[in-house]
Amino acid sequence: MNVSTTATIEPSFRQSVDMMFNRAAALMDLPPGLEEKIRVCNSTYTVRFGVRLRGGVQTFTGYRAVHSEHTEPVKGGIRYAPNVHQDEVEALAALMTYKCALVEAPFGGSKGGLCIDPRHYDADELEKITRRFAYELIKRDLINPSQNVPAPDMGTGEREMAIIADQYARMNTTDINARACVTGKPPHAGGIQGRVEATGRGVQYALQEFFRHPEDVAKANLSGKLDGKRVIVQGLGNVGYHAAHFLSTEDGCKVTHVIERDGAIEDQNGLDIAVLRDWIAKHGGVKDCPFGTYHKDGVAVLEGECDILIPAALEGVINMGNAARIQAPLIIEAANGPITAGADEILRHKGCVIIPDLYANAGGVTVSYFEWVKNLSHIRFGRMQRRQEESRHQLLVDELERLSADTGTGWTLSPNFKQKYLRGAGELELVRSGLDDTMRDAYQSMREVWWSRDDVTDLRTAAFLVAIGRVAAAYQAKGI
Ligand code: NAD
């Protein structure tokens, strides 16, 4: 049994997750054997399939790992990247188990991946490949509304999820819940408002919650609010873009550096994230970008001076090789596994506060949970209540205006107040409210452990303690 909690050489991604797990499990009093049962990945299915493309047949390799089935369905994204491998999907599946437990999404953990660089294929080719991959997983119930529900991850998005849902519906023509077989679909194909932005929005809500607690902020040697904080972001994809965009346009943060595949771009006055994203979409990278100073060595920019560092691209980017040089006092792990177990130890000893991935990027699975519930209930959130809520608010406004007129006080409600108050909550407002509530609650559960136990000095261990405790309770309640 692997019970290591410290790293002397750089561990693999899965070993890193296991070591972080072990660190927390060592502080718990679990029944004999349960710790190992929770830690191990239950199964990983490897598929190799051929697709007729460009006048020949190309063979692709894909994976679907199921880490824990203490609650079903299991849930986790599908990643398209050239270097996807079994160790990676198993690490990501394990993180999904702990993440879902932490934010109380009723799912076990899973993850999938396909070894492919999606930039090398056009939309029609990607559809053919996605359909064939989905077919392999669906026929084995590795995609199924009640058993295994994928979502987007790196290299995939709404389009791939819509194709997977369609493929499932074609193979299960009488399943009334077919749409719930995958989340992250576009709203016109059974998706939910606010899913695309959800993970980045969750990162924003996580930081807002952290900055509501001055004592926590002080642990990172910072003070004040989010306003004016200098931020470095790595990866301006789905997660990184939305986090950077919301933090800079809604919370007053200054995103001074964005690191992409081909280098980094710097503007100490704060980059315009939407404009930068359009540039990257058109030109494929940040090189030659006219909006700031270009740095060829993007990885070195991770070590730059800032208040908040947001790695939002890949795993293992902060490792034993560069951890000692990282200057950020606060790191929020928007990506999965961006800090290796060895680096985590170095950073902890330096006093850096890390808001861990299993909490920080849980916004995606939280809104995926809402989408799954919406698909199973076959009704959009807010459809029954919205107008009723509006008419009750209208009643109150009418009554206040009548009183003002009758008593001759001359009081009037400001148009801004009336407009906001009279508007009933639609799906997007409800999704954001549910996400905010989830991120606040999950932070509180970690924080309680962080502040109440002398043997817990970091948020990651606190998060694992909460998550493992919940998974253990589920196994103990239902039997194994
Ligand atoms: P994405 O494919 O949309 O974006 C990834 C971005 O990182 C791209 O802009 C890409 O160019 C950039 N990138 C790739 N390699 C890089 C490198 N070496 N240096 C700098 N930048 C690089 O992916 P995403 O969905 O935003 O996922 C990013 C991370 O967030 C992953 O770790 C993923 O597992 C995690 N995550 C995603 C979601 C989600 O809902 N999409 C949910 C939870 C966690």
Question: What does it look like?
Answer:
Helices cover 45% and strands 15% of the residues. It contains 17 helices and twelve strands. A seven-stranded mixed beta sheet has the order 9-8-7-6-10-11-12, with helices on both faces. The chain has a five-stranded mixed beta sheet with strand order 1-2-4-3-5. The chain binds nicotinamide-adenine-dinucleotide (NAD).
Which key features would you list for this structure?
480 residues, alpha/beta, Rossmann fold, 3 domains, seven-stranded mixed sheet, five-stranded mixed sheet, 17 helices, 12 strands, globular, binds nicotinamide-adenine-dinucleotide
Low-confidence region ranges: none
User: Helix/strand/pairing class, anyone?
Assistant: alpha/beta
CATH architecture of the largest domain: 3-Layer(aba) Sandwich
Spatial gap, N to C terminus:
19 Å
- Secondary structure: number of strands: 12
Structural domain tally: 3
Q: How much strand? A: 15-25%
- Principal-axes geometry comes out as globular
Q: Which ions, cofactors or small ligands are bound in this entry?
A: nicotinamide-adenine-dinucleotide
CATH superfamily label of the largest domain: Leucine Dehydrogenase, chain A, domain 1
CATH topology of the largest domain: Rossmann fold
Strand neighbour order, sheet with most strands:
9-8-7-6-10-11-12
